[in-house]
Design brief:
Layout lengths: L16 H9 L1 H8 L9 H12 L7 E2 L4 E2 L1 E3 L3 E5 L7 H16 L6 E6 L4 E6 L2 H19 L18 H5 L2
Parallel strand pairs: 4-5
Antiparallel strand pairs: 1-2, 3-4, 5-6
Helix pairs in contact: 1-2, 1-4, 1-5, 2-5, 4-5
Protein name: Dna2/Cas4 domain-containing protein
InterPro entries: Dna2/Cas4_DUF83, PDDEXK-like_dom_sf
Length: 173
């Protein structure tokens, strides 16, 4: 599917869903990602997530916005995102809100979103209203501040890094 063009009045630093997810998961991860450190390709957990994404809801079509790729959007402009996680996360909701904001900026009247967790057969609704829009815009500002910082943010506590593909960089000797 072709990318939907971004409004030229938009900021030159386009942010995708991965930027917002990393911001909420670990700002250091976002900072490293933006500087070209990409260990995800060697991560078994990332590979597993890609398999879950490719084998779940196979009749859907990704929506390529250029800076972001939405899993799918249903009639009525409901954004859908599939996660391989066994636990809902604020990062997942933030990612869906970001997609809603990107679509709204393109003139689409978005109604909200749903995060699908096929491994636990659960979904979470992500509302789209003035408060959600403000959260999405604030997340963009925070992400840009992290990206622009000259030094990486501090590490999270070791226990929060479990399963992260950036662990070796942050905690390796």
């Amino acid at each position: 599917m072709n990318a939907i063009p971004l409004d030229p009045a938009e900021d030159e630093q386009s942010l995708g869903g991965v930027h917002i997810k990393y911001l909420h998961h670990c700002p250091r991860q976002l900072w490293l990602y933006m500087r070209g450190y990409r260990p995800e390709a060697r991560s078994d957990l990332v590979a597993f997530g890609e398999v879950v994404d490719e084998t779940t809801f196979t009749r859907r079509r990704d929506i390529d916005l250029g800076e972001a790729r939405i899993d799918w959007v249903t009639t009525g402009a409901i954004v859908h995102e599939t996660k391989s996680s066994r636990a809902p996360s604020v990062a997942h909701d933030a990612q869906v809100r970001h997609y809603c904001l990107l679509l709204e900026r393109r003139g689409i009247n978005v109604r909200g979103g749903i995060v699908h967790y096929p491994l636990i057969r659960r979904t979470t609704d992500v509302p789209w209203d003035d408060e959600a829009r403000e959260l999405a815009e604030t997340a963009e500002d925070e992400a840009r501040a992290v990206i622009a910082a000259p030094e990486p943010p501090g590490r999270l506590t070791r226990g929060k890094c479990r399963g992260c593909s950036y662990t070796d960089y942050c905690w390796g000797d």
